[in-house]
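agent> fetching stored inputs for the CA2 docking request
agent> found them:
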Amino acid sequence: MTDQLVLLLSGPNLNLLGDREPDVYGSATLDDHVAVARETAQAHGLTVEHVQSNHEGELIDAIHGARANAAAIVINPGAFTHSSWAIHDALAAFDGPIVELHLSNPDGREAWRRTSVVAPVATGSISGFGGDGYRLALDAVAALLA
Ligand code: CA2
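agent> prediction call returned; pasting tokens
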């Protein structure tokens, strides 16, 4: 049987991880985090497809694509977390589990980060555990799909 596919989405500026703000986001790169997600997925018999984009429409297109081929979505929407009702609507049209993932804990930061417009359409959220969040998110997806 083929592995179930999990779409891992990374929003704007996450391609800069490891380069700046290590005090907030850690020193690992996005590739490092994706590797952890892939390893965790593999241990659960899942496969990860990763898409990073700095463009809202590209993230939305990827979510639409997931409707046909993915069992679950893990998404770190970056700053779109706090503003993108378009991503909210796209996720609302996806039928499987959705895990919202953040490296930092947005609730402990600036006031504008305390609102997530993605949270209402997510199955659950993992925030504030740094890179460990990628392993936790894939563990959560596996449990939800089991
Ligand atoms: O904590 C998270 O994972 C965030 O989604 C990261 C977003 C931020 O806007 C959210 O409030 C919380 C920002 C990602 C930007 O990442 C950078 C990495 C290195 C240098 C600059 C930005």
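agent> quick read of the result: The first strand starts at residue 4 and ends at 10.
agent> awaiting further instructions
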